[in-house]
Amino acid sequence: MQDIIYIKDLRVQAIIGIFGWEREVRQEVSIDLEMSFDCKQAAKSDSIEDTVDYKKITKRIIKFVEESSFQLQETLAESIASLVKDEFNISSIKLRVSKPGALRHAEDVGVIIHR
């Protein structure tokens, strides 16, 4: 069984959507990540060097999402997952991306992927 380091409800402004108006205004997206990681060494050493630096991951995701311009949440989610896995040596990730308020009568709508 793997340990999980998570980031919940990271809110970022992005250009995302298929409609003309969505290509012109930034919308809020919400991101949850669950990253598999063996925490035993970090717990033993009590050192940031032995764990996943979630502050660095968060800053990198924010920069990436703010600079992105995808039409689909699916593409954004896949791109974030690839970025985190490649740049931070994460072997397994569960990622949720949603657009709060995108649907009338619903809190949000989004996609969840496992990579």
From TrEMBL:
Pathway this chain belongs to: Cofactor biosynthesis; tetrahydrofolate biosynthesis; 2-amino-4-hydroxy-6-hydroxymethyl-7,8-dihydropteridine diphosphate from 7,8-dihydroneopterin triphosphate: step 3/4
- Under which EC number(s) is this enzyme classified? 4.1.2.25
Name residues in a coiled coil.
none
Q: Which domain of life is it from?
A: Bacteria
Record CDD domains:
DHNA_DHNTPE
**Gene3D superfamilies attached to this UniProt entry:** 3.30.1130.10
Single annotated GO MF: dihydroneopterin aldolase activity
Kindly list the GO CC terms recorded for this protein: cytoplasm
Q: Tell me which residues make up the Dihydroneopterin aldolase/epimerase domain.
A: 5-115
Keyword Magnesium attributed: no
Which Gene Ontology BP terms does the record give? folic acid biosynthetic process; tetrahydrofolate biosynthetic process
Record-linked InterPro entries:
Dihydroneopterin_aldolase, FolB_dom, GTP-CH-I_C/QueF
> Which keywords, in A-to-Z order, does the entry hold?
Folate biosynthesis, Isomerase, Lyase
Its catalytic activity?
Answer: 7,8-dihydroneopterin = 6-hydroxymethyl-7,8-dihydropterin + glycolaldehyde; 7,8-dihydroneopterin = 7,8-dihydromonapterin
Q: Which family does it belong to?
A: Belongs to the DHNA family.
**Role noted for this protein:** Catalyzes the conversion of 7,8-dihydroneopterin to 6-hydroxymethyl-7,8-dihydropterin.
The entry's protein name is 7,8-dihydroneopterin aldolase
In its UniProt entry, the species of origin is given as SAR86 cluster bacterium
